[in-house]
Amino acid sequence: MERITEMPRMQKDENGKMMLYVDGAPYIALSGELHNSSSSSLAYMDQKIWPALRPLHMNTVILSVAWETIQPEEDRFDFTLVDGLIASAKREGMRLILLWFGLWKNGISTYVPAWVKKASSGLNARFFRVRDGFGKPLDCISPFCEEAVQADAAAFSQLMQHLAQADPEHVVIAVQVENEMGVLGADRDFSPAAEQAFHSPVPELVAQQYGQGSWEEVFGRDGGEMMMAWQYASAVEKIAACGKAVYPLPMYVNAWLEQHPDRAGCYPCGGPIAKVMQIWRLAAPTIDCYAPDIYLNNFRGVCDEYAVSGNPLFIPEVRATKDSASFLMYAVGKHRALCFAPFGIEDLFGNRSDSIDDSLLATLNISNDAFNPTGAGERLAAAYDLIGNMLPIIDKAHREGKIHAFLEYHDSGISLSLARYDVQISYSGASESFFSRSSNNKDRAVAGGFLIELSENEFILCGSGYSVKFLPKPGEKAVVGVLNKEEGYYRAGEWVPGRTLNGDEGYFIGLSDFPQALHISLFCYE
Ligand code: DGJ
Predict the structure, then answer these.
(1) Which of 33, 35, 36, 345 has most ligand 1 atoms within 8 Å of its beta carbon, as the pocket-test mutant?
(2) Euclidean distance between CA atoms 505 and 334, whole angstroms
(3) CATH number at residue 273
(4) What is the pLDDT of residues 62-102, one digit of tens each?
(5) Ligand 1 atom 2: the closest Cα is on which residue?
(6) Domain range spanning residue 226?
(7) Has this prediction a pTM greater than 0.85?
(8) Closest ligand 1 atom, CA of 180?
(9) Which of 93, 200, 202, 409 is deepest in the core (most CB within 10 A)?
(10) What's the domain count of the chain?
């Protein structure tokens, strides 16, 4: 029998923190995004994908649904594939986040149906294209093309309508609207409609916040990018609003981040990078959150940049390497991320797949080392198992301000000030003798994790590759001693102790290169 469950939703909790609720309870999507084409075949999903995902302790898979698949002809919709994906996810006990590959995917329009492609040639085409500064058409339908936006919105609304009827158990918990949109290969759209907008006064909502004038007058050299951000956001608002009106699932957009060479058009111009998030928010109130795809090395910096002004941290794509587990610990421990998803998750226990070759990475401006499955699967599986079983503890600690997260990035550690003690966290390498067996080599993962204060004298340490020194507060005449040190794990919110490590192993508090948890009790003597 089908379970009728509560609608998934993104909503602020009593502390004003944006949360994702699934079946009425707070949820973190411990996830992974599939390669773009994996979900286009149910047979492939059954033979290759589901078996590869089973050992990972994930609770959610992110996969694509392409416009061309559900509306192969203008007057015909086909949801066979969508229904099959939902049925197989349900069988696997997995939730889904759908990527709506509509008008835009990585700055281009490759997933639109053939009938759209065929009507996109020429300046006066029904679905006209973005033009560069020389008037050359790009492989991107213009966000100024009202008819294209309406067609996408109509198809998206059909998809959402279908989900409303076909998915009463809410296997699908959220939808990403489009994918890494923006203009690539020109610093803005120069189609006639775009030209006219560029030389007109900015829309009233923008003027209220930033002042009156044309885009260039108000934003200077950023005028083109701001206009594109407004235009993409306005288009997405129309598309998302049509979908939400029939089935109000959480909806987000993702960004190809601003990166070297930091010039709009080298990354998709107008996409929801941090710099233009405020413009996006003005134009697209239906969008619940802005999500970074993190292939840059500075994971910590990007998280901190996106978790601002009420925007929850939601990571639909991230480097898939042995560092993923530490990234997860930081994202959850520091920002209480709603979603964490390495890209190409099906490769994590195998070889790097042929879906990612060097020319693709060059086109996407992603460094080659962002995909290296060596050691990644085991680490991420252990971290997902741990986090997935301690969510209520993590949430309580966040509410009470008792969780402290850290991640190595060209530094050696951090100091924390807790209620009773000061703490020094040192990343591996800082303590050669302990780490020499496992981590003191260049193959180790970046160190990262979090510390939870269960009480003044009781702590949970999670993560890998760091050591911990508890110290008395400055000036205090006391020596800190270890009362008890235990390894263990969580099951359904309960600590399950493993070995007690109080003898030779008790002197030093450190987590090896593999994600783990320790329970520490302290006392003081004079
Ligand atoms: C970012 C895109 O959003 C994904 O769809 C995929 O193409 C990856 N890059 C590939 O690395």
Answers:
(1) 36
(2) 29
(3) 3.20.20.80
(4) 999 999 999 999 999 999 999 999 999 999 999 999 999 99
(5) 106
(6) 9-388
(7) yes
(8) 3
(9) 202
(10) 2
In the reported structure, the alpha carbon of residue 180 is separated from the centroid of ligand 1 by a whole-number distance in angstroms of: 8
CB 344 within 8 A of CB 353: yes
CB-based contact 38:53 (threshold 8 Å): no
Q: Tell me which of 353, 388, 423 is where a domain ends.
A: 388
**Whether the CB of 343 sits within 6 Å of ligand 1:** yes
d(CA 193, CA 142): 9
Q: Is the CB of 106 under 6 A from ligand 1?
A: yes
CA of 68 to the centre of ligand 1 (A): 18
What is the spatial distance between Cα 317 and Cα 111, in angstroms, rounded to a whole number?
Answer: 19
Residue that the structure tokens 């993190």 belong to = 294
Beta strands in 257-338 (DSSP E): 289-294, 314-318
Ligand 1 pocket, 347 CB below 6 A? no
Q: At what angle do helices 376-389 and 391-400 cross, to 10 degrees?
A: 70
Ligand 1 centroid to Cα of residue 37, in Å, is 11
Cβ of 42 less than 6 Å from ligand 1: no
Q: Which of left, alpha, beta for 488 (phi over 0: left; psi -120 to 50: alpha)?
A: left
In this structure, the residue with its CA closest to atom 5 of ligand 1 is 36
Q: Are residues 382 and 405 in the same domain?
A: no
Q: Which atom of ligand 1 is nearest to the CA of 254?
A: 3
In a domain, 164, yes or no: yes
Mean of all residue pLDDT scores within the chain: 95
Q: Is residue 3 part of a domain?
A: no
Q: Which pair of structure tokens corresponds to residue 89?
A: 């996810």
Could you report the per-residue pLDDT of 364-396, keeping only the tens digit for each? 999 989 999 999 999 999 999 999 999 999 999
| CATH, residue 420 | 2.60.220.20
Return the SS3 of 191: coil
Rounded to the nearest angstrom, the distance between the alpha carbon of 159 and the centre of ligand 1 is 22
